[in-house]
What we know:
Chain A is mainly α. Chain A contains 15 helices and two strands. Chain A has a two-stranded antiparallel sheet. Chain B is α/β, with parallel strands linked by helices. In chain B, the strands form four sheets. A six-stranded mixed sheet of chain B has the order 6-7-8-3-9-10, with helices on both faces.
Amino acid sequence: xxxxxxxxxxxxxxxxxxxxxxxxxxxxxxxxxxxxxxxxxxxxxxxxxxxxxxxxxxxxxxxxxxxxxxxxxxxxxxxxxxxxxxxxxxxxxxxxxxxxxxxxxxxxxxxxxxxxxxxxxxxxxxxxxxxxxxxxxxxxxxxxxxxxxxxxxxxxxxxxxxxxxxxxxxxxxxxxxxxxxxxxxxxxxxxxxxxxxxxxxxxxxxxxxxxxxxxxxxxxxxxxxxxxxxxxxxxxxxxxxxxxxxxxxxxxxxxxxxxxxxxxxxxxxxxxxxxxxxxxxxxxxxxxxxxxxxxxxxxxxxxxxxxxxxxxxxxxxxxxxxxx
Amino acid sequence: xxxxxxxxxxxxxxxxxxxxxxxxxxxxxxxxxxxxxxxxxxxxxxxxxxxxxxxxxxxxxxxxxxxxxxxxxxxxxxxxxxxxxxxxxxxxxxxxxxxxxxxxxxxxxxxxxxxxxxxxxxxxxxxxxxxxxxxxxxxxxxxxxxxxxxxxxxxxxxxxxxxxxxxxxxxxxxxxxxxxxxxxxxxxxxxxxxxxxxxxxxxxxxxxxxxxxxxxxxxxxxxxxxxxxxxxxxxxxxxxxxxxxxxxxxxxxxxxxxxxxxxxxxxxxxxxxxxxxxxxxxxxxxxxxxxxxxxxxxxxxxxxxxxxxxxxxxxxxxxxxxxxxxxxxxxxxxxxxxxxxxxxxxxxxxxxxxxxxxxxxxxxxxxxxxxxxxxxxxxxxxxxxxxxxxxxxxxxxxxxxxxxxxxxxxxxxxxxxxxxxxxxxxxxxxxxxxxxxxxxxxxxxxxxxxxxxxxxxxxxxxxxxxxxxxxxxxxxxxxxxxxxxxxxxxxxxxx
Lengths: 324, 495
């Protein structure tokens, strides 16, 4: 064991953090909650926890799109648009075709956006950043056209989705009924399925994957379609929470979803990270938002703080984990 | 200054990169009107020496005198001002600029440049041609013309003719000879003895970073040069492996007149089950393209390949893998997921196909990986990311990946480059063991001494063609080296 003793302590700590990135994140989360409790004694109760989780869930789901695509070195900037479209189309279809069918119809354009992204990234080798930005813009335009046609029929958020988005059972938000199985599935899939491993492989070294016989286009196509589907579901849950479908419903969540994945320890260069960290990242961002609101800082300063804290956390984290 | 004072005199030049000594004691003298060939086996330090002389690298020790005066050449610009102008192995023009802009960057006078381009046999060049649109051979000529236009006192040419067609080679040789006749000097690096015999006056031979000889070019000098390049290694090679019986039957892999890229011209070879077939070639003779084409990494431009007697065409490495052809690339960084674990690296090919995208059978996978790790004797004490392993262990991981899936035909490209002796031995042993179990192995090596230790026979490739097939018991370094330099006319080469 003499070999390990020669390694400087900082490097060893960096390696440890890189292998178990979730531990410092959880510590940070606990510190934030403790600060909150210190500033406003008694605020951290069951109701507050429920509320925080309720708002963190759509963010965490949208951040799943970012995490999975980032594992391959990509990103999905159309996720928020896919979520918005799926929510808006669903809500406007309910008066016409009824809730169950409307939900299915709502998910179709989200998957379609994902497939187009996948095709562009896999077959045309367009950089994911540009590809998803482009499809996002196109889809936004299409949504505006669509709105003109359905403007008369009005929109309804189905009971079931509202129950899922805002309802509680024993103090805990009902959305957990969807989110817990979803999170377990993703965390299991990223390590224990062939598809999940290939995401890491492509992000780590595409040539090595190719030499090993991986046809990357298949993976990219499936990945971006999956990302579209997840975004669509996130949109449905979010509209159940907000209850007012609009053309820019989920857009404010886009950059926080990227931030949640990055804070959660997923490398934007690919090959490193995972969804467990992202969930903690989404919780950190949500708690941070509450903290800054409670401190009654004016809006401008709040945003500055928000940005600074995200930068600080990410920088420290990268510094620590890059000590190889 | 008398006419005897050498134009350039370098002596005792040394250069190390970290722990690696690239140059130990290199020296070279060149007078006005001389052409000197700089020769040496792969890794002898030729390129490093040229870079030191032209200021691209700083020397650690030694002196460089120009016209008898000590010169400190600190940068390529300083070398140029002192009259030393290089043409490196790789094209050095900027692809996104046109010809005129490239000339302006180096302050090259346009008129003489165009004169030399014309003299070197390129017609119809326009100054607004984009460099990126020109063929490789033209780029080499432009590099040379640019160097000539600055009227160098000493011109250094590193593998100038490697990418050129025959007619251009002749023009280049004529121009180079003309330079010398005008009283300028040329240092000429090439693997081609015929060219060296045609134009050079002397040959300076490097071995392991040391100048070991300086010979006048005369008949029969090739043998002496080869001897010098090999040095003490001659006859002291490792024990010859027990070569298996002459292979018969249907070849596992039958490559016929394969052609790819600019360098692989026409290679035919047969690889039989139970055989380790060595591939020997100097750098850049088409071996990279050969392996890439067989592994499905690139598509060949011509020729055919057959596996077990059936013709095959590969569009993707997955097609080659489906035929049992598995590839270990020369650059480990190319083949490994550096940030992932040994386990994930070894298991990768098992998950590649779409039907394996679902749940992984963790126990089965773990046992296969364990077997591969045990068989390859990979030291996995350094847990976690593969980039924390030593080079030798990393190489074992790239090979072990295919051991875990069961080897039929293994394509090893220089698998022992830069790894320690013990690991090398393990790899020879493993390759032999695989062959004994019926696998076929194609084994390119840049280290000639490995051929008798690891292979049953060796095909030698020179300028993109097979020039000889040598059985292991005759594959001493001298024979191989001679063949690698294309010096075979002793016997017929099997097609």
